[in-house]
């Protein structure tokens, strides 16, 4: 999913002539086709869904979101039960890996990458599991991010995008005013200088989450800011490139060692630092639109702004874009018809809008994007950033193990030899 995907603005607001999920289509196509391809949908069946929690509160509101869809679906399809399994982002990948190893993969998984399991022949192609109307309703360039080579060596769409987001740089305007900072930072040098002034106020200058929750995102943002990234222009893995090593050395020397971040960034989770920022304890942090609801719950009030992410020599022209996917496992062939019905139902406009309004994320479907772009102004800057976003290399089968290795050890790169740490991650990317 790396390539600097051009997400055309027109694609975000385009309207469909046909409804993606009319009442006659929301059950996943004709019953005759589904019966032939994956069992008799009139017989009782239980399918499983493994999904992460996007919420930041003690209440597991993502579970409530999925449960509402399941309840609505089961009311119309009483012979199909859906077993919902929730996970945190910390243990989501482990849960899935363990399930696959135990020959008990969920029928549906919603989360990050998909290419490694597609390469093993474990997934249905999107065109085999959702209706044509649902596929047409996906934002085209986001749908392309779900393409990879399957076990047959042919490129096809296996990942079905569920939600998207981009990243921005958030800062506390009240702390900036107290510190005498008049302009938002544009370069790394600006960030370091501003962080030192905020530290003088007794606050943390910059929040640097390099712990297990989402270190792959923070890493990508900083390496992009120095002309680096996860792959080079030729498509080869370049995690231990000189630019990336220099990036972590700069973080070590200019933010971590001077005490301008929280202590030991390797142990810090994104959500915890977002909450600290919302409580007014951190001056600056990278964030997604999902940070906005947390800010509303915090004491920071309206004393914040978001701008383009500072890079080494200037703001990033291509900030990180993230797409989370649904993938359908083909290990239980007799569940296919039921899975198809549920997917078409769950990707309806009303549920996409509900999810994105709750978490301030961006939809993956055209009809929901068209409405949200005008109804939710706070999302507009993030939607505007999508056309130039840089995406994870999710279409590479090595991305999932590489991403996990980044989460496991990249935090050590700001407390030890950065090249040695990045070399270890590069080895995983290379399949070693």
From TrEMBL:
Signal peptide stretch: 1-19
PROSITE patterns: PROKAR_LIPOPROTEIN
Keywords from the named record: Signal
Pfam families: SBP_bac_1 (PF01547)
The protein's name: Extracellular solute-binding protein
């Amino acid at each position: 999913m790396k390539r600097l995907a051009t997400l055309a603005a027109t694609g975000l607001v385009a309207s469909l002539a046909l409804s993606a999920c009319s009442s006659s289509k929301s059950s996943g196509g004709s019953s005759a086709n589904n019966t032939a391809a994956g069992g008799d949908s009139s017989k009782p069946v239980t399918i499983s869904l493994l999904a992460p929690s996007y919420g930041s509160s003690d209440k597991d509101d993502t579970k409530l979101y999925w449960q509402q869809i399941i309840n609505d679906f089961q009311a119309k399809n009483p012979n199909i039960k859906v077993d919902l399994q929730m996970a945190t982002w910390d243990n989501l990948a482990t849960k899935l890996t363990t399930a696959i190893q135990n020959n008990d993969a969920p029928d549906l998984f919603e989360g990050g990458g998909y290419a490694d399991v597609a390469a093993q022949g474990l997934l249905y192609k999107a065109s085999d599991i959702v209706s044509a109307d649902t596929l047409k309703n996906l934002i085209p360039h986001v749908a392309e991010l779900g393409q990879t080579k399957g076990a047959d060596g042919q490129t096809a769409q296996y990942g079905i995008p569920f939600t998207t987001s981009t990243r921005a740089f958030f800062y506390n305007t009240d702390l900036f005013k107290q510190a005498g900072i008049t302009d938002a930072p544009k370069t790394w040098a600006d960030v370091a200088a501003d962080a030192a002034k905020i530290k003088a106020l007794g606050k943390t200058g910059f929040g640097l989450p390099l712990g297990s929750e989402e270190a792959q995102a923070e890493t990508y943002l900083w390496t992009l800011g120095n002309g680096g990234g996860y792959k080079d222009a030729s498509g080869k893995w370049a995690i231990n490139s000189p630019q990336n090593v220099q990036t972590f050395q700069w973080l070590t020397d200019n933010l971590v060692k001077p005490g301008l971040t929280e202590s030991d960034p390797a142990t810090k989770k994104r959500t915890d630092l977002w909450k600290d920022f919302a409580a007014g304890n951190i001056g600056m942090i990278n964030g997604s639109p999902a940070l906005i609801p947390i800010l509303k719950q915090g004491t920071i009030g309206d004393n914040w702004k978001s701008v383009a992410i500072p890079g080494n020599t200037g703001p990033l022209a291509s900030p990180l874009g993230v797409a989370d996917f649904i993938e359908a496992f083909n290990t239980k062939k007799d569940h296919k018809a039921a899975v198809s019905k549920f997917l078409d139902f769950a990707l309806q406009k009303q549920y996409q809008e509900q999810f994105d309004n709750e978490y301030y994320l961006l939809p993956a479907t055209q009809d929901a994007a068209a409405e949200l772009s005008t109804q939710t102004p706070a999302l507009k800057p993030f939607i505007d950033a999508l056309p130039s976003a840089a995406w994870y290399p999710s279409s590479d089968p090595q991305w999932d193990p590489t991403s996990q290795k980044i989460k496991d050890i990249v935090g050590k790169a700001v407390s030890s030899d950065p090249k040695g740490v990045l070399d270890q991650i590069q080895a995983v990317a290379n399949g070693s």
